[in-house]
Amino acid sequence: MKHENALxxxxxxxxxxxxxxxxxxxxxxxxxxxxxxxxxxxxxKKVSTMILDEHINFCLIKAVRGEDIGERERVLKEIIEVFxxxxxx
Amino acid sequence: MKHENALxxxxxxxxxxxxxxxxxxxxxxxxxxxxxxxxxxxxxKKVSTMILDEHINFCLIKAVRGEDIGERERVLKEIIEVFxxxxxx
Amino acid sequence: MKHENALxxxxxxxxxxxxxxxxxxxxxxxxxxxxxxxxxxxxxKKVSTMILDEHINFCLIKAVRGEDIGERERVLKEIIEVFxxxxxx
Amino acid sequence: MKHENALxxxxxxxxxxxxxxxxxxxxxxxxxxxxxxxxxxxxxKKVSTMILDEHINFCLIKAVRGEDIGERERVLKEIIEVFxxxxxx
Lengths: 89, 89, 89, 89
Fold this sequence. Notes:
By secondary structure, chain A is an all-alpha fold. Chain A has helices spanning about 5-25, 30-65, 70-89.
């Protein structure tokens, strides 16, 4: 399956988030909660980078090499939007 | 309970991530997956900001007003570490 | 001239930086200095976004529409590198 | 003088920006201009981090250890504002 590694990481992140929910329910110290959330943020960013890299190295390169001008423009605009969003998050 | 709103949001994020896992399992287009992950990133950042704001406005202000010099230094170092990590993520 | 507006902004930023140098020489309060540096950071980011947008809307679109496969790949790799650097700064 | 190293770096950055202005005047390739601007962005961020670290390790620690509650709150709010701005830039 495509993105198998990313899928595994998302399942871990899901478990990590459940752990943070428990911390909050048990009244953990704010800073400890925030540190765990920051770890989740870094983990999700990693997954997003992995999928983006795969997209660039396969789908995007293939489309840019292809004959279809409309498709080439489409994938370009798409990736620029993704980068713009990433820059703002 | 403290951070009740944050807890609710984390449960939503958990569901969102499960949705992304299904997208990957069903072979969704990379860019659609990435957009969902970016939405999760923004949602988690929001939760982390909420908890941080509460920490600053309650625990931190209280400690800084308090008599205990060691405690004042401790909370200051703690918050600077959190901000440093946030700046790098 | 191309990037005329960006050029004007860079000249302003140059003057802004000279002002910050004077602040430091005159022993200004750190936080006031930092606030001015943060204003410069935002101003430079704005210039970089302006030039990048122009590049995307003219050079990049033109290359992606063009016949030269090698050139199409080259401009794509180039823009991805720029975005990667932006994401890390 | 305080922040002597930061001052030297700001003077270099000023020269760097003048170089970028010349590149634009001479019609340099957008991507080459952007790369130089990104280098300036990183250099300015470095200066800002240097001054911030000095502020934290001297002024801020001193104020937080001090007797003046109002002053302690003031420096705390100030630093949080600076970090908030940094997080958004």
